Amino acid sequence: MPMNLPHGPLMIDVAGTGLTDADRQRLCHPLVGGLILFARNYASPEQLSRLTAEIHALRSPPLLIAIDHEGGRVQRCRDGFTRLPAMRRLGELWERDPQLAQASARDIGYVLARELRLHGVDLSFTPVLDLDRGRSGVIGDRAFHRDPRVVVLLAGQLIDGLHAAGMRACGKHFPGHGWAEADSHVAIPVDDRLPAEIEEDMRPFRELPLDAVMPAHVIYPRVDSRPAGFSPVWLAKLRGEMGFAGVIFSDDLSMEGASVAGGIVDRVAAAWNAGCDMLLVCNAPGKVDEVLAGWRPDFDARRSAHVARLLPVPEVPDMKNDPRHLAGIEAAARLA
User: Fold this and answer.
1) Contact between residue 89 and residue 58 where contact means Cβ atoms under 8 Å apart
2) Counting C-beta atoms within 10 Å of the first and last residue's C-beta, which end of the chain has fewer, N or C?
3) Distance between CA 172 and CA 217 in Å, rounded?
4) What are the angstrom distances between the C-alpha of 196 and each of 101, 162, 226?
5) Per the confidence metrics, is the pTM higher than 0.85?
6) Would you give the distance in Å from CA 256 to the centre of its chain?
7) DSSP per residue, 11-34
8) Is residue 251 among the annotated active site residues?
9) 309: phi then psi, degrees, rounded to nearest 5
10) Active-site entry in 191, 251, 252, 277
């Protein structure tokens, strides 16, 4: 029988293609509410289905299983899945044929979500809403376009496809990572523009029907000295002025861009206190254990309920002869 536990605020990972006893113990801790998968956790569609079924069976309500599965160089499941193009390919198609680009974005969103859901993955951290400003190598071709209007139109269609397949959408990296040059995995990026100059980057986050948002590990010193994911200023703007009512995920708190907040327990506490609902601690099982042993937040039923709403409905229709799925495969192949 699964354990009856509400969703805790931590999202963690596991090392391999199956669960160890240590994995199960961590995943059943009350502070944990979700799991993120990486390429190392994937061997085949059948293996993925077994792994996600075991994870979901551990608890009730089931843990939220997420993945970074955007397309292009950020696609964790490859063999047995449709190879998805980088989102810049859709932006390039827009320059030639805007209507076809929008239809392709919708079809690709559908096939992205449907294939993941068929194998038990609940959420992909997509779409990337950063503007393609030609400055950020870590964003690069993950961005749809340099023009926020085009990003809104193409990402909006991709979100329609995700929603049609029963998956929620998580926009990243608020308020925009396209200007900051450094890679937050290994450095602390800084965007020193004036607030008025950042407004253009925020337009997709204002206008799109997002279910979740992931802030950037970027410091915008003209607004706050803290990275956006640790900043009550930025997250209050997102919740208050922008009226966002969905889930706020931290980016991975093990990344170098999070180091300004101190040790791992300090980072988790800072992101939680700033307003993040779910906190990612990845690729560092020792740090997960440190957080589980050393962090004692008060349970927040409202935030836990927000996370539970990201779980899709259980039913996943068969993909055989699904015209939307076939259209998505064709759209991805045209842009490969």
Assistant:
1) no
2) N
3) 11
4) 30, 32, 18
5) yes
6) 18
7) EE--SSSS--HHHHHHHTSTTEEE
8) yes
9) -70, -10
10) 251
The answer to whether 289 is a known catalytic residue is: no
Do 254 and 284 meet the contact criterion of CB atoms below 8 Å apart? yes
Q: Decide: 151 and 88 in contact? Cβ < 8 Å.
A: no
Please give the single-letter amino acid code of residue 39.
A
Distance between CA atoms of residues 277 and 275, nearest Å: 6
AA letter at 56: H
Query: How is residue 128 annotated by DSSP?
Result: B
Neighbours of 78 (CB within 10 A): 12
d(CA 114, CA 237): 33
Contacts of 298 (CB under 8 A, 6+ apart): none
Report the alpha-carbon distance of residue 109 to residue 124 in Å, rounded.
10
- Report whether 150 contacts 94 (CB < 8 A): yes
In the predicted model, what is the mean pLDDT of residues 71-79? 96
pLDDT digits (tens, 9 = 90+) for 111-122: 999 999 999 999
In whole angstroms, give the CA distance from residue 25 to residue 27.
Answer: 6
The phi and psi torsions of 26 (rounded to 5 degrees) equal -65, -45
The tokens of 277 are what?
């609902």
pLDDT digits (tens, 9 = 90+) for 253-284: 987 666 776 899 999 999 999 999 999 999 98
Give the Cα-Cα-Cα angle 126, 193, 257 (nearest 5 degrees): 50
Cα gap 111→145, rounded to integer Å: 21
Computed on alpha carbons and rounded to an integer, the radius of gyration of the chain in Å comes to 19
Ramachandran region, residue 228 (left: φ > 0; alpha: ψ -120 to 50; beta: rest)? alpha
Tell me the one-letter amino acid at 212. A
Q: Which amino acid is at 174?
A: F
Q: Residue 126 corresponds to which tokens in the numbers above?
A: 């997509």
Cβ-contact 275, 80 below 8 angstroms: no
Phi-psi region of 312 (alpha: psi -120 to 50; beta: other; left: phi over 0): beta
